Amino acid sequence: MPKIVAEPEKAKSKKKKPEETPAEFIQSLAGVLVTGLFIITFILQAFEIPSSSMENTLLIGDHVFVDRVVYAPPTRWVGPLLPYRGVKRNDIVVFLSPAEAGLFVVKRIIGVPGDRIHLQDGKLYVNGQPQNEPYVIRSRGDYNPYRDNFPSVPPNMATSITPGWHLLMRSQVQGGDLVVPPDSYFAMGDNRDISYDSRYWGFIPRENIIGRPMFIYWSFQTPPGQYQKTSMGERLAFIGKVVIHFFDQTRWRRMLKLVR
Known about the structure:
By secondary structure, the chain is an alpha+beta fold.
């Protein structure tokens, strides 16, 4: 009787992948952390919007990623690969405040070097031309002679203008216009009635500009003045609120919205 020879049994399982050693895991984790730190330090930086001066473009509690590369000085070896460019009129920028050391501020660029600027009854004119500003809101709707007719109306004692700007401003006015000097920028907030901006503290030096907000990665309903509550108890209370109301007070429609 012929014997039935069974075929050799095929391998039932594939060769196991070598497991990662603790040293290799730590090396991989370090690589991720270093890459993340490089990106956060030199390419992107996260900021939270603390005030309503840029409403409705940016709301209190919007968290944005800022592109730190776009305004950086071009480098020879990666210059052609990165979208370097100068600061333009209407750009929204994050910068270090000229009025308060260490404070990051976000505003819209209104004037670049050489521009001539004035406001008449709240209407902005640049180089003699009235500007169409669909993003501007007038949240108070009141009238302030200095704020709405800058720079033709001098500030009074109640105007919150910095001493340095009070001394310098008149020397920059020609024919009723404020003239933006070289390597400087004039910026205002979109919420024009309440924005504390270049009308009150002067020009932004070029070296103070950090970058351009790209998009909102998270937005949470945050009360005005929250950034001024710095005690441990106040911070823990707000963290608890975020944990409890993460889903119902996150502004989901603003997630991943481009800033412009």
